[in-house]
Structure formats: C-alpha cells, structure tokens
Task: structure prediction
Amino acid sequence: MRPTLMITRAARPRRTPFKTVLLALILLVVILLLVSVGVSTYVGWQLTHPARKALADSPDRYGLAYTPIQFPSRSQDVTLEGWYIPAATEPTPDKLTIIMAHGYRENRLQSGAEAIKLTKALSAAGFDVVMFDFRNSGESGGNLTTVGYLEKADVLGAIDWVRTHHPGRIALHGFSMGAATSLLAAADEPDVAGVVADSPFNHLTRYLEDNLPVWSHLPSFPYTPLILGILPRLTNMDPDQVDALSAVDHVYPRPVLFIHSIEDQSVPYVNSESMWAKHKDRFQIWQTTGKEHVKSHAKFAKEYEEKVIAFYKQLQ
Result:
C-alpha cells in the first residue's frame, strides 16, 4: 500500500487580548462620534427651527387702538406681520416711532417682559409704537431663526415701513436677541435716532461658545464645538457676523440705553457692560437685579418706564 499523505493546515494566529480591546475601543469611539454628530445636527436644527409661540394677547385688551400691518423684510425673502399702535396724544412735528424687537423663541408680545404694558405707557407718553414678529415667529412667514443674522433685515424692513407710512424720527427697543439685532440694524441705518437694548448678547459666536448649554441642555464638550461647526452648514449663516460689540462703534455717537440684570443667568450682564464701556460719553447702562432673563420691566415697571420714556424724549 502507498503511504497516505497527511496535509496539515497552519494554525490561524490568535488575536491577542490587546488587539481585541483596541479594535473594540476604536469601534466605540466611531459609534460615539457618529452619535454625537447626529445629536448635534438634530439639536442645531431644533435651535434654528424653534416652535412658534402663538399670540395670546392683543392691544385692544389694554384699551389701545391699533392697526394690523404687513411688510417685507428688507431682504425681500419673507413677509412679516405686526401692529402699529399710535400715540394716545396728538402727534407733534418731532414725533418719534419706536420699533420693538422681540427675543428668541418669542413673538411681538415678549410676554415675559410684559411688552404690551410697556407699549401702553409709551403710547400714553406720546410715542407711536410698532410691534412685529421676526421671521419664523408669531404670525410672520419663514421657517428659519438665525438669532440676528437674517433678523437684522427684518428690523430694517420695519424701519422701511415706518419711513413710508409714518415718516418721522425712529428709535429701536429690543429684548435679548432683538436687542442685539437692533444694534446691528442701527449700525447700518443712520435714520435710527437711538436704541434701548434690554439684555443683549454682544457677539453670537462667543456667546454660544460660553452659553450654548443653556439653550441646548447638553454638555459643553463635545456638543458645543460640534453644533457651532454644523450650524453654518445647516443654515448658510455666519454667526461671527452677529457682532453687536463691533456694531456699537457704528451706532455711536447716537445714544444707547442698555438695561441688564447683573444676575442674569441666560445672557450674562458682562455682555451689555462690554458694549456700554466702549462709549460711556453717549451710552447709558441701568443695572437691575434678578436671575431671570429679560424680566426688568416685569419686575420694575414704574422705574423702567420712567427711564425709557426720559431716554426717548431726549431723541425728539
């Protein structure tokens, strides 16, 4: 008999425990990165597409005459809705119209600040007031919120409407996002006689770098840098251009009254302080108290109204 040939296969090299653990760690990191990017994209989308807040009040409930108005943003890409509330007294040749600009996730009512009660006081003092909804807010068109980048054109559109229908001097009164946006608009529009900026941030990128967890409810790392990297691609916006700290140099020498709580936990007081400090000869600042954001009028209504009315009378 012929001898049988035996064919033996070489034994497969076994993975060492170290290699197995390394591959598992790499896989885990990749999964965590993909999850983080997915969460950041979702949160970034939610932040720039917030749910609209319905109007739950109207001027007639406060004995105010008003006219519903509609006008295009100066960018011509969206139609905005609002109210024109005339002065309760006879108009004067040097009459002043005050355009109010609301905050993020708000509408023209800015209910936390009781803006409609402030409007009643302004109307009684002889000022016309325009209250309107930014894009993607209240009853206005649009489906994207950019925290000042596109909203600046909305304020400029309101200025165009006033200039056409009620010519005269114009002032801006903004809350939070609306305050920063009003400063940007005033820097571009020399017809703005002055600005009241209630609780603004001074630079959107820097503000979000420090405070995005307040709005996203996520840990700063890794989500803040991821969201800030994703947002421009989601929205085609540059948050660095929402720079009120530079804008105030172009508002000057026109006056600005900053109002900000030194205990504000959403937009720290230093944001207003840094802008006021650049031009103390023409800018004023009123420090209030309270941890809640944009609550100065609700908490200190009489003093608030006296200060802003005195400020606006100086513009006439």
Summary: The chain has two domains: 23-52+205-238, 53-203+242-313.
